[in-house]
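Sample intake — Class I SAM-dependent methyltransferase
Collected from: Catellatospora aurea
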Amino acid sequence: MSIAKVVQGLVTGPVPVRFSAFDGSEAGPSDAAVGFEVRSERALSYLVTGRHELGLARAYVSGDLEVHGDMYEALVAVNGLKLDQSWSGRYQALRDLGGLRLLNPPPRPPMEARLHGRRHSKERDQAAISHHYDVSNRFYEWLLGPSMAYTCAVFPDAAATLEQAQFAKHDLVARKLDLQPGMRLLDVGCGWGGMVMHAAREYGVKALGVTLSRRQAEWAAKAIAEAGLSDLAEVRHLDYRDVPVNHYDAISSIGLTEHIGRAQLPGYFRFLQQRLRYGGRLLNHCITRPDNRDPGRYRRTFINQYVFPDGELEGVGHLIGVMNESGFEIRHEENFREHYALTLAQWSANLERHWAEAVEEIGHSRARVWRLYLAGCRLGFERDQVQLHQVLGVRLDPKGAGGMPLRPSWP
């Protein structure tokens, strides 16, 4: 039986995409906007042996599966398919496609992370961060644009540019922290220094950022010097756990909590609380799960294997609870889920504009990882499979005073 007929047999209803395979068979409308091409039997083996979405990702990253048309639209179409999930249907499809030989998994693509040592040890965390962030600063410049901000932007309106939205995000964080000239800010997981430079340039704050990525720290040091901010802003290649006790006026954690791990969260927030003065504020900005019902934090998925190894997401309720138990009074919480979908759409557009350069800079397989990752995450935020929350906490003094205004001082 042809591969196309097997696919049609697994789908309940019409096939809304173009489908073609190496045996010459085809299915679906020829004028569909997107199409999938199975280029080899190895692609079938990846699809059969990979759990969850990992098989599709391995086939695509390796080049054995091609997606024609826009990746985001292709994923929307795949998510809309109604498949025969019965064991009998899947067993018959396996037999028709080639039988037991497909169950011998091909070698994993070299882009998959292979970490060693104790989870969330300093050495393993360094390797995990390096896997994703020490790719190429030139690549990130193309992807992120001039802001070099690799976290969810805050769009004042749908027509705002990515740069305007990233400025708005940094400024919102600054206002929630009530930054004032002469204050000292610690930014943990600072990336390329966007928040550090914003605080120094716009608010006259003396800001220190720390990152586990050496390439980020090198890029940030150069950017700070070129901006004439070296007297106020600094970025160090340093594990946040090695930041000495020095009572800061404010701490921002933008996109780091995802890398900490559930078991380490109480120690993480206690560590930050101990580095704040009384009345000092912490703004935690991170990706979360929509709830805490899914126990599969260590599941082997595309994101964990290719993008953020050892990453762990928690529900915002759990994070708020841990922050509270670690000595913070929670004063404000906000969900920016739709904003992250808009941010990812902008990053995807940047990647496509620089596709040829990106392939030359980081290689075809790694560029395909990014194309799939950005489109898949955009869909996830749109459909409430993941969220983005900002949580503001304050360290109270021994008498319970936190210095907060009666009403928020930010719009």
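Post-analysis note: The chain has two domains: 3-103, 122-394.
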